[in-house]
Each structure stands twice: as C-alpha cells, then as structure tokens.
Specification:
370 residues, alpha+beta, Pdz3 Domain, 2 domains, four-stranded antiparallel β-sheet, 12 helices, 20% strand
Length: 370
C-alpha cells in the first residue's frame, strides 16, 4: 500500500529515466540510419496515440505518445515499430523510396543500424560513469579481510584478519566488492579462495552460508555470506583523461555479471524471482531518486547498460534478433525467406510476452507481498 500511496514519487523519476534511455537508444538507430541514407517516418517516445509532435524538414514525425514504456524509430519500408519489413509495400516502392528503405541497403549497413541502438546505450552509460568517477569517485575497497565473524563460514575455513584475497574459483579479485558479488550468488557452493598471507600464497575452501537480509528499503534478499568484513569503502577519483577507461570496464563488468546471473537462472542454479519489470524499476527509480541525484545518475547508467545488453540478445523483435537474421544472411549469401522471418518474429513475440508476464508477476509479489 505504501507503493500506491507514493505512486507519484515513483512514477515521475521512472518516466524521466526511461524516456532519456529510450531516446538515447533510438537516437543511435536514427543517426546511423540517416548516415546511411535511410528515410525515417517516425521517431516516437512511447507507444499508442500521439500526445504531441512535429515534423522536421526531412519528413520525420517526432512525437511523444500516451503509453511511455518504450519507443521506436519507424523507417521507410517498416511494417511496425519492431522494424518488421512490410514486404507488400516494399514490392510496390518506386526507385526513390527504395533508395531510402533500410530493407534495400547492404547487409552491413543494416547491421550497423541495428547495433547502433545498444551501442548508444553503452556509450551513454560510459559517459555517465566517467562523469561520476571523475567528480565523485569510483567506489573501491581493497580485498583485505579486516574482520571475521565468530562461527562463520570464513572462521571455519581458517581465514585470518589481514588475508588478501587474490582469486575465487580462478576468478581474479581486485576489489572487496568483487568478492562480495561472487560470494552472495554462491550460497551452499564450495569456493576455492586463493589468499596472500604475509607473502605466502594459500588456497582455502569455504562454503558460504545462506542468509536472508533486508536492504535499507526493507526488502528481503537471499544471499550467500562468508562472515568477513573489509575496510571501509572509499571513493577513488579518476582523472578526466582515464575515467572513461574505468567507466568502460565498469559497464562491461556489469554486463558480465548480468549474463552470469541469467545463465544461473537458465540452468536452475538461481531462482527467477529476482527478475524485475517496469513496476519494480519504477519503485527503485523513486526510492533511488530520494537518495539524491548521484544515486539516480548511477542507476540510470546501470539501466542503460542493461537496456543495451538485453537488446543484443538474439531474440526476434529485439535488435539482436535482427542482427541474427543479418549474420545468417551473410553466411548464406542471401536473406532468410519471408516465412522464416515471420516465424522468427512470432517466436520472439511469444518469448518477450512470456518474459514480461513473469517479470510483472515477480514485481507484484515483490511490491505487495513481502
């Protein structure tokens, strides 16, 4: 009920964040399409009936629509917002419109246009992270154990204060946050931890214990814990000339963590309860907005990374689905048949709808049944 009472506080930041990220994504498609001579019929933020809009000199209709969860760029020859080719219209096109249709561009031009949206999201996230790292600093904690909880998994395994963690299951550890990220997702699993103790290298085996904790918003989370404490987290300011490097590293590290988590869900090693949809993103946007502009910018960068990554998944209707068709075209030397593409889009539609239903159900359980 608290969520409903403060709905405005959640919805407004959410709509601002989502609109900015959708605009960035679609602008990537738009700019690369225009560079390659593709005509753009519509650039829309949101779906459904138009709220307001205008036409530019090239004939593109720029508009904001009533249903704000997404957006699209409709190019000459597209049948819908998912850039499905309108084969009937394409067959009737005159020479001028053919030259402006994405469908009649080279396969490499079409690949460039499809990949531009996700890359725009990654570039935007890297810019935001760079600004944060150069002004506020990058969160960083040396992976040295400063405290061990009595009777914990770490105490049982033989860890000592002062141990520097080098790697876990072969994965290099540079920050204490890296250790936390791995341990939290490995409750009940045996971890081989390489440590440096006064210049001597040891390998200790530890099994993180399952624990249920509450975050500062009161939400419960099931995580694995070793029972160790690091030093107080600090922020390292990066110089403007190398902040982009650390920002790029952060963006791809977040992508890798997301892919690992999805892989664990697919193989059944992790529950799908953590998958969230628009309602939970709206809730988190509002809560994080109340924490300050810095937290909101960081959250926007995180969402931009995830939006770019998800759109690269090889699912028809997403950019990755178009890329899959185009790369198959490169291998075959000719486009897939209309029927194959049609079935591909149908399967993609079913997958996306199914995922949306699952995510929305998880949102409702998360928000209203705690």
């Amino acid at each position: 009920m608290d969520f409903l009472m403060g709905l405005g506080w959640y919805i407004i930041p959410f709509l601002i964040v989502l609109s900015v990220l959708v605009f960035v994504h679609e602008l990537g498609h738009y700019l690369v399409a225009r560079y390659n001579g593709v005509g753009i019929d519509v650039f829309s933020i949101g779906f459904g009936p138009e709220v307001f809009g205008w036409n530019d000199r090239s004939g593109t209709r720029w508009k904001v629509s009533w249903f704000p969860l997404g957006g699209y760029v409709k190019m000459v020859g597209d049948a819908d917002a998912a850039s499905t080719p309108d084969h009937e219209a394409l067959k009737k096109m005159d020479e001028f419109n053919r030259s402006r249709s994405l469908f009649y561009k080279s396969v490499w031009q079409r690949i460039a246009v499809s990949v531009a949206g996700p890359l725009a999201n990654y570039l935007f996230a890297i810019i935001l992270f760079s600004i944060l790292f150069a002004t506020i600093g990058q969160r960083y904690t040396v992976p040295i154990i400063q405290g061990i909880q009595e009777g914990s998994a770490a105490a049982t395994a033989g860890f000592q204060v002062g141990d520097k963690v080098k790697s876990i299951n072969g994965e290099s550890i540079d920050r204490f946050e890296d250790l936390q990220m791995i341990v939290q997702s490995k409750a009940g699993d045996s971890l081989q931890v390489v440590i440096d103790r006064n210049g001597h290298i040891f390998t200790l085996s530890v099994i993180p214990t399952l624990s249920i904790i509450k975050d500062h918003f009161g939400h419960e989370h099931k995580i694995g814990l070793m029972g160790v404490k690091g030093s107080e987290a600090g922020y390292i300011k990066r110089s403007w000339w190398n902040a982009w490097w650390y920002a790029t590293e952060e963006a791809f590290s977040l992508s890798w963590q997301t892919l690992k988590a999805l892989g664990q869900i697919i193989i059944g090693a992790k529950s799908a309860d953590g998958l969230g949809g628009p309602l939970r993103i709206a809730q988190m946007s509002g809560e994080i907005a109340q924490s300050g502009i810095t937290a909101l910018v960081w959250f926007m960068a995180l969402l931009s990374v995830n939006l770019g990554l998800i759109n690269l998944f090889p699912v028809p209707m997403l950019d990755g689905g178009h890329l899959l068709f185009y790369f198959l075209e490169v291998l075959k030397g000719k486009p897939l048949s209309e029927k194959a593409q049609e079935w591909g889009f149908r399967v993609g539609f079913i997958l996306i709808i199914g995922l949306m239903i699952l995510a929305t159900w998880n949102d409702l359980m998360h928000i209203f049944i705690k």
